[in-house]
Amino acid sequence: MLVMKFGGTSVEDATAMQNVIDIVRIQLERARHNASPAPMVIVSACAGITNKLIKLAELAVSNQRDEALGLLDEINAHHVKVAEALLKNGEKAKHFIEKLTHNLATLINAADIFGDVSPRVIDAFAAHGELFSSFILAEAMNEQGVKTEWKDARTLLITDDHFGKAQPLWEMSEAKLKAEVLPLLNQGIVVLSQGYIGATVSGKTTTLGRGGSDYSAAIFGAMLSAEAIQIWTDVDGVLTADPRLVPDARRLKVMTFNEAAELAYSGAKVLHPSTIRPAVMKNIPVYVLNSKRPDGEGTLITNAVDSFEGMVKSIAHKKGQTIINLTTTQMLGTYGFLRQVAQVFEKYETAIDMISTSEVSISLTIGDKTNLNKIVEELKLIAEVEIEKDIATISVVGDSIRRSPGIAARVFQAISDINVKMISQGASEINIGFAVDESDMERAVRLLHEAFFAEVKEGAIFA
Ligand code: ASP
Ligand code: MG
Questions:
Q1: Which of 245, 244, 260 is nearest to 397 (CA)?
Q2: Domain total for the chain?
Q3: Which of 47, 110, 147, 358 could connect to 12 by a Cys-Cys bridge, CB 3.0–4.6 Å?
């Protein structure tokens, strides 16, 4: 049995939703042919709608009720338009859209009166996006003969009350899925539900955090012991580099969970590792596929042995980084200095990305500059501090890096005329990372891509 998740751009309008229906139909026919259960389908809100819903909450609490109601009209109109374009008989869907719109208007009034925008309130607003999109899609699937049952994820995914970043209550949710979803799938009925949203034991709406529908898909897949999870999006899969920098970037046919994690941390737009953790734990293969080009093979993320081949898999980069260099003689032969430094970053809730140290100095990079000035002030109490702005970090990632000597040499050979500001071979040993001036970034990525991928032939790993 499959869990198929469709992201915001895959359900953004009627055309996109029609693609989804066609993709699900083919999968359903395949399942029927193999006498296996129907897939469970999870969708995001239409692209851009979650942002608008959050904006709605913010307007409502800041005395901009009229603007909020104007924005609500826009949200409503979008979904009515999709329903009208997609459905022959859109009455039921339109009725549901009106109901949700009415709920939102009530929420706006309440927020306007209480003037308080807590994560709990935001969740109540934000959860509507997935309800809109999924309901329209379910109606259309049934209209087109793809037998589907729409389920409100808030009756399936029970979470703690950490609003805005809720975690599933595993046993309870698993029991619900097994009781309410599996029997339908076993009868060949598609179950269509929402990503991103859930509810507490007492029924209060929660969300799993932005981009949380991948996480939902992984949770549902793990609970149902799916044979695979498909993440349908608008790219052909995971590539060897950002195609905006490297137009001839190649698609990876297969990669490991570790590589995906390392790439995500290093700035690539791949599935975030924490979101697919439930799939990793159960070793469920995850496919990244393009709903606009459904015939493509996509990228398989797995821990199957074959996925470990291929030395370097991909090159990720992050702009807008800052290097902080700390020097102190106090560090020589003493201990506790790193802890003092770490405490400053902890205090200002700023994540350190790369770090490298010597006996008397520490260099580190951060991406979040919000508290940079305060951090620097405090660090000055314990060390000499020097800042380098407009930095880019580049990471060369591959599981086999740890087993192949000479990769670092090839990396720095390829960019030998570029000034490297800092080097850090990730503790995971599957990532060689370094920092350069932002103005050197594009060229560095291109040179590296040329060095590692120009001669790689199409095969098991690279398309
Ligand atoms: N719609 C939610 C968001 O935009 C969840 C998701 O798309 O994954 O964050
Ligand atoms: Mg999304």
A1: 260
A2: 2
A3: 47
